[in-house]
Amino acid sequence: MPGFSLRVIAVLPALYLLPQTALAACSDPQTTHEMRHCAAQEYDQADADLNAAYKAAQRSMRALDQHLPEDLKGASAALVQAQRAWIPFRDAACRAEGFQFRGGTLEPLMVLTCKTHLTRQRSDQLLQLVEPN
Question: Is 122 within the bounds of a domain?
């Protein structure tokens, strides 16, 4: 199997360079593939920010519940219910938006862009629960 190991060795440098090339491509993506890759990175960051905002909002809602009489508590549970309803809404809304490019190479890009946009909006909404204006 010497031929196999030589092929693996020949591929390793290309795999090592892929993340660096992908990072450089996000400063000026040229192909649909690069655009989708960059959009996925942006969505991943927006999702991480959403998770942090949700945790902060959940802490705020739990603190609010602690100061309410028993018959008025429910802020934390309401937030969980709202978030569980919001996720399928976001996904369905963006899937619908993607239909403008159904079957084309832009469809996944449009869906990711929509999800990023709505996820950032939701993060802002959640942060309003932490520090209302």
Answer: yes
Q: Phi and psi at residue 57, in whole multiples of 5°? A: -65, -40
The 3-state secondary structure of 20-77 reads HHHHHHCCCCCCHHHHHHHHHHHHHHHHHHHHHHHHHHHHHHHHHHHCCCHHHCCHHH
Query: What pLDDT shows up at residue 27?
Result: 86
Interatomic CA distance for residues 112 and 33, integer angstroms: 13
CATH number at residue 63: 1.20.1270.180
For the chain, the domain total comes to 1
Q: Report the distance separating Cα 68 and Cα 64, nearest Å.
A: 7
Q: Is residue 123 a part of any domain in this protein? A: yes
For residue 16, CA distances in Å to 6, 12, 13, 27, 128 come to: 16, 6, 5, 19, 42
- Asked whether residue 86 is domain-assigned, the answer is yes
Q: What is the pLDDT of residues 81-93, one digit of tens each?
A: 999 999 999 999 9
Say if 93 falls within a structural domain. yes
Q: What is the pTM of this model?
A: 0.78
Model confidence at 4, pLDDT cuts 50, 70, 90, reads: very low
